[in-house]
Each structure stands twice: as structure tokens, then as C-alpha cells.
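Crash report, auto-generated. Payload:
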Amino acid sequence: MTDPEQAAADLAFVRDAVERRKTSHHAPTPLAILWAVIVLAGCVINDFAAQYAWMYWSLMPTIGFALSKMIGVKDLLKTGDFDPKMGIRSAMHWGSLFLVGAPLWVMGFSGKIDGNTMGQLLFLVSGVYWFLAGVHLNRRFMWPGLAMIVSSCAMIFVHRYAWTMSGVLVCIALLIGFSQPEKSDER
Amino acid sequence: MSDELDGFDELLQHRSRLAACVLLSDDVSLSFVRLRELLGETDGNLGAQLRKLEEAGYVKAKKEFAARKPVTWYTLTDRGRRALKTHLEAMGKLIKRAKV
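Recovered output after restart:
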């Protein structure tokens, strides 16, 4: 080891292994499909069966969160790569979305704001959360987040089938985002 | 040169053992299969290297069953972290000195 060239070669081997770990892990695609289905179905319901929207959006985010956790654990066992710090960070990020969404939900239920406005605000807040998840956790969330932010702003001006169009846009952004390879600086 | 030699850890002079410790130093748990995939080692060789690290108290192994299959998870111990830090510092000094 006292040979500097050998030391440099060993460090290069270590660097390659570290780099391989960063690039060889992909956020599970079932996660993207799950949320693409949840968002698209919910947005279609908002436009075409608005009477069921309350029920749908009261249940599905919680169910989606639980299913996401299951998918994450399954992926963890499959890849054999467990990063507790990242797990806690992800859980706190997505879990706090419920805390932020709760006051909006209460405002909607108490009649302070109408259902559609509440939906738009929740969509905007969720979009910001997804975008920030893209900044801090995994780049793949960035585009769907941006799509949600843009959609919630566009809904101010577009009224006909605005939710369905937003759902399709987010769905496409999610599926495209998660089909891209992970960048090396994401983990 | 003797200053640098003081910091070298004999166990970490094998590049697979060194790489395993560096990978685990990120406060993560990695399975045997994952380490084998990242280091490009054979089962037998990696098993032997990890056993040496385990015997020295540098890594801790934990066996679990996932879908009825045994999975061995590895984590770096505090002792391993200290040894790795000292060893990497010595390596850095050696390379730096060679470049001057």
C-alpha cells in the first residue's frame, strides 16, 4: 500500500463502486404507475362525477401513501440497499403533506371555500411538494410537480375538462419522468 | 514516509474490503448481494473479505429472511468508521506526497 500508484488505483476502484451505487438504483416504476392512476382517475372523477370526488380524495391519498410504503419496502428488499436517512427524509416530506392539506380540507368541509377552489389549492400544494421532492429527494418528481403547479394555475382560466387535462398532463409527466435514468448526484 | 505508514490499516489494504467499508460509511445497510453487485466480486471471495471485516469488528452482519430467502445485511461499526477515516487520511497523504 505504500506504493502511491497502487493507492491511487485502489481509490479509483472505490470511486467506481460508489459511482455504481449512485447510478444503479432506480426509484421503483410501480410507484409512478400507482400515482399516475390515482391522479388521473381522481381528475376524471372531478370533471365527470364530481359527487364522488370528496369520497375519492378523502381515501385515495392515504391508500396511495400506504401502498407507496409497501412498494418502497419491496424495492428495498429487492435491491438490498437501505438508506435509513433517506427513508426518514422521504417519510417526513410526504407525511407533512397531510399536515399542510388538512387545514385546506377543513376549510372546504366547513364551507369557507368551495370544493373546486379547495381542489385547486390542494393540487397546487401537492405540486409544490412533488416539485420540492424533485429538488431534494429524486429528480423524477420534478416534472410531475411542475405539471401540477402549471395545471392548478391554468385552471383559473380553463374551465371545461380542466381536471381531466391536468390529470393527463401529470400522468404523462410522471411516466416520462420515471422512465428516465437516475442522475448520479441524486442519492 | 513513516508518518503515513502509521495510519495504514492492514485490513483495509485490500481494495474490496476498503470499498465495502467506504460504501457502508454512508450510514446505509447493504445486503451481501448488493455488495457483490457493486464490487464485482465472486460469492466466495466477497464472503471471505467480509468475514475478515466482521471478525475485526469493522462491520456488523445481520441475517434476515425476505420472501423465505435469507438476506445478510451489513453495516459499518463505529470501530470500522474510525479505522476507515485514519486509513483514508494516510492514503491521501501518501498520494499527495507522491504528487509533490
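Post-recovery validation: Chain A is about 80% helix and 0% strand.
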